[in-house]
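Lab manual, section 2.4: Encoding a predicted structure.

Procedure: take the sequence of the chain (600 residues), apply the prediction step described in section 2.3, and record the output as structure tokens. A sample record is shown.
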Amino acid sequence: MINLLYQVAKYLMILLIALYTLQCYTVFRKKDEESRRYLFLRQNMLMFFLHFTAYALIYLQLGEFEVILFYGAQVLYFALTLILFRLIYPLASRLLINNMCMLLCIGFIMIARLNYDECVKQFVIAVAATVLALLIPVIIRKLRLITKMYYAYTLLGIGLLGLVAVAARSTYGAKLSISIAGFTFQPSEFVKIVYVFAIAGLLTHARDFRRIVIATVLAAAHVLILVVSKDLGSAIIFFITYLVMLFIATKKPLYTIAGILAGCAGAVGAYFLFYHVRVRVQAWLDPFADYQLTGYQAAQALFSIAAGGWFGTGLFQGSPTAIPIVEQDMMFAAIAEELGSIFGICLILICMSCFIMFINIGMELTNRYYRLVAVGLGTTYGVQVFLTIGGTIKLIPLTGVTLPLVSYGGSSVLATLIMFAIVQGLYMLRNDEEMTREQKEAQRLEQERRSLYMKNGRPTQGASYYGPGGKSGRGGAYGANGYTGRGNGAYGSNGYTGQGNGAYGPNGYAGQDNGAYGANGYASQSGGAYGSNGYVGQGNGAYGLNGYAGQKNGAYGTNGYASQGGGTHGPNGYAGQGSGADEPNGKRKRGLFSRKKSAK
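Recorded output:
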């Protein structure tokens, strides 16, 4: 029964990671914000379900209540991370946040399966690093001083690497870590970030060939110190990162080609100079030639991947612990063995999604310095993933670097979370730039809208004029095909003229107060005149053709009712009352010149 449960959980975890990975890429097709928001929520649900399934198996295997408490602490951590990033930084990239949490989730699962105590340490470091990461985006977004300190970054990076070369203890032939007050950390993980900031500043201000040479020499100093320390994995990362940033900064392929040739020459030289390098290369070429010694780690990794197949053996059903240093150098082999190659491919695609977001954010930034920083960090992350997985599957020689956020290593987790937080800050800077461009465009359109002759639009209120095809503002004039403004409006053809001395409003209602000539509509009140085909206004109105003439002394109201009070000559209708006269073709009202019919 237990074995059946493990098998069902294995396939369920593959399905969950596959659905999550699919949505990492379908999100780019979503145009509206609402659809994207629901997609990100689905990703969160899939991650929590995957996490629950794996830790249920871990609890069944270990049978300790502490596992349940540890699982609850991780759930709380993920929930708070997602919520706090969303609340503090609503403009942050949700995809990057989700991927960061998913990679950490996979790491917690596999490290707990391999070494539970190490997983607890990793979790504590991740919590502390996340608290720090929450502060970094606002620093990147607000503190522009960081763009001017590139020489300080250069000195700091070279100094830390030099300290490692002199004082660090050797681990498997390479000088990597330093211990201070009981804490062991790997400075090269943090120098990666400092190095990117330094090179971005140097190349941003490299306006001529001399400055490019200076930047190249300072970058080469970092790489050479790492080579002397036999930290070849970090040396390759630094070198490739510089080449990519150099090409983005200069747009000259010749520089990149020259750098690649120099790198190849350096690799050949390192092979003959350093025994450590020769061992790695020989183990890569034929790991079974010296299976018991130099080729053992690489061979065991290949055995694990082959044993897992497409669907894996299931959590706790394989033997990944047979691989030396598996939780640091060979985490991908452990994942491929127990969770399957399909799960491993999905993991690679999630890492690629992060890399794509890093590069995309960088290329959309207009600030040259920030663009180089984003591209540099993206390249650093992508190359590290490639070196780790490529070395595991025997695509390239082993380099001894960790799989970011997945492998065990406090320095690696802390540095990677800082890297993600920096990119989040750059992403928000990109949004700020977009908002600035939109505001400038809106101002430009506003200036055009205020131009003298707007066509087929509606001008704003307040002293606007000449707004054809729309409603003119208050105090406006000549608002054709629309409503003219209030207050001295004039010439509002085919619409309603404004109030207050409005004039000449044909085919509409003329304004009130001394309005005139309201053809085909209602003339204004008080003194209105010539309201043809409509109702003339009240008060001394005259000539109300085809309509009702106004009251008080109205005259000549043809085809309608003449006005009251002294009205005359209202043909084809009823003459007005009060001295009305000469009303043909209708009933005559009482008036001064009315004739009585003779009685028969």
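Check your result against the sample. DSSP finds 16 helices and three strands in the chain.
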